[in-house]
Amino acid sequence: MNTVHLQPEIQVQKGKTISRLEFLSLLKTYNCFHEDKKNFQLSYYDINGRIVLEGLLDISWGVHQPIRLQINDEKSKSQAKGAQSPDPVMNKRGMTRWGEFDNLCNIAELEEESGSETDEQEAARQPVFESSTLKPQRNREPESGILIRTRSDVSLVKMRVKNQAVAAAQKAKRHRSSINGHFYNYKTSIFTPTKGSVTSVRINSTLTTKEVIALLLQKFKIENDPNDFALYVVHASEEKKKLKDTSFPLWERLLHGPSRKIVKIYLMDKDAEEISIDVAQYIKFELPVLNAILQKLNEEETKYIENALLRYRMEKKSLVQQLRRRMMVRAETSV
């Protein structure tokens, strides 16, 4: 690890600095926490007297708006490559892994081919109905005196409706696959990340919040505007603070410690509501307790308003009395 120059203070963000000893202590604690995961440890180097951190930053998903993936561009590239692109690595449920976006382009074609084969097999198993009635066709057999029990028209209608519903559900299921537990509809290129799921991106401490968001979207080939999102620091107490666009997320991670159980950094919609520490302390309470606290606050507010009104009435009364006395003295003097 590089040695730190003997500058007295290290700037971690605009208007905030820490001492050299404090920086080394925080870095040592952070790397000791990730001792069994060397790739999560932070390193630093010196550029013209400026300390620059480098390492992986864990970011949790917390967005609510739809995420659109850049499938069309990748699809055209994969078609230009032709037979050079490898076959997609998928299992029976249509699962795939991150980083295989060249394979995601072929999911629709593969699913449609397998879907057509499945439809043909299901059609072969389906009973063939007569054109004028809903009774299934059957082979001509010699007439006999034994009557054969047949299904009623109502039951046949129900069976056909049920088969159509099952086929529609299977088709919708094929269009909605899963990527590492995240729901993804490749027909609409809409990606729905599971709330709280964690991803990581390698950055350095010179990257601002906006640059980190843009890098994260670029990593997963997301075509949404980076300005639609923001990074939030969420504490275990439910306190939630929005990082400024000019903040440095890697420094924030170091200052808040390495444990995600205490502090997490979330990618959320830019208009997500912040939660102060005063409000966060009441979030985990039960509803009856919150109602009691609210009632107590209302009573204190009413009492405070009454005391303030009483104080101003007394001051007003005193000023009026003083004004009347001066007017009386002035009238006597004039006489």
The share of residues in helices is 40-55%
- Uncertain segments are 85-110, 175-181
In terms of DSSP E residues, the strand content is 15-25%
Structural class call reads alpha+beta
Backbone CA Rg:
35 Å
Shape: extended
If helices are DSSP runs of H or I spanning 4 or more residues, what is the number of helices? 9
Largest sheet: 6 strands, mixed
Average of the residue pLDDT scores = 75
Order of SSEs: EEHEEEHHHHEEEEHEEHEHH
First and last CA, distance:
95 Å
| Annotation, overall tally of beta strands | 12
What do these coordinates show?
The chain is an alpha+beta fold and 335 residues long. Helix content is 43%, strand content 19%. The protein contains 9 helices and 12 strands. The protein has helices at residues 20-33, 71-81, 101-104, 107-125, 153-175, 209-219, 249-256, 277-283, 287-334; strands at residues 9-13, 16-19, 43-47, 50-61, 67-68, 176-179, 182-185, 190-192, 198-204, 229-235, 240-242, 263-269. The strands form 3 sheets. Strands 3, 4, 9, 10, 11 and 12 form a 6-stranded mixed sheet that branches. Strand 1 and strand 2 (16-19) form a beta hairpin. The longest helix has 48 residues, at 287-334. It is extended and about 100 Å long. 15% of the residues are buried.
